[in-house]
């Protein structure tokens, strides 16, 4: 008898947790300057579900950015570099995954306008289980205690033309 009651309450608890899914904290972005083409968005994602989930994508209005990518930072020979995470950002059951500077983040690519302090815009997060959630991103200044400049030197846009030696074309 006691066993049945326990099983029942467990089932109820489970259902309640299922309904909650992913809880989001306050989403924010760092301000960008004119001409800066990419900016990071950060938010804490708490998976209140009993199952692991994955953040598989994000989207914003076309007036904000052309596309988005999910990024992480890796330490490569002492240099912090950003990498796209193709498999998404893992959201383990019952845990809070922090998207924060120096770690996972949503990268807004091809920004249509600078992200200025105080500006807000909606961001839709898409999860592996097919659900999605809209959050409001607020652009705010960060306490820049660590000298880590996100947004500059974005990976993949490094056009190094060194090594092209055009010597020898010496027309007299
Ligand atoms: Cu990035």
TrEMBL record:
<keyword id="KW-0732">Signal</keyword>
<feature type="region of interest" description="Disordered">
    <location>
        <begin position="146"/>
        <end position="172"/>
    </location>
</feature>
<dbReference type="Pfam" id="PF04314">
    <property type="entry name" value="PCuAC"/>
</dbReference>
<protein>
    <submittedName>
        <fullName>Copper chaperone PCu(A)C</fullName>
    </submittedName>
</protein>
<dbReference type="InterPro" id="IPR007410">
    <property type="entry name" value="LpqE-like"/>
</dbReference>
<dbReference type="InterPro" id="IPR036182">
    <property type="entry name" value="PCuAC_sf"/>
</dbReference>
<feature type="signal peptide">
    <location>
        <begin position="1"/>
        <end position="19"/>
    </location>
</feature>
<dbReference type="InterPro" id="IPR058248">
    <property type="entry name" value="Lxx211020-like"/>
</dbReference>
């Amino acid at each position: 008898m006691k066993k049945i009651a326990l099983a029942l309450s467990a089932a109820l608890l489970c259902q309640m947790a299922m309904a909650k899914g992913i809880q989001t904290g306050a989403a924010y972005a760092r301000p960008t300057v004119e001409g800066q083409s990419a900016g990071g968005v950060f938010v804490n994602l708490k998976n209140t579900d009993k199952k692991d989930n994955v953040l598989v994508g994000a989207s914003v209005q076309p007036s904000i950015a052309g596309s988005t990518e999910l990024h992480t930072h890796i330490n490569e020979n002492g240099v912090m570099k950003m990498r796209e995470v193709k498999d998404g950002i893992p959201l383990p059951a019952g845990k809070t995954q922090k998207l924060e500077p120096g770690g996972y983040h949503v990268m807004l690519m091809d920004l249509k306008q600078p992200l200025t302090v105080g500006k807000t815009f909606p961001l839709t997060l898409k999860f592996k289980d097919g659900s999605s959630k809209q959050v409001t991103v607020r652009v705010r200044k960060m306490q820049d205690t660590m000298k880590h400049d996100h947004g500059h030197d974005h990976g993949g846009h490094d056009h190094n033309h060194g090594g092209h030696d055009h010597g020898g074309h010496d027309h007299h």
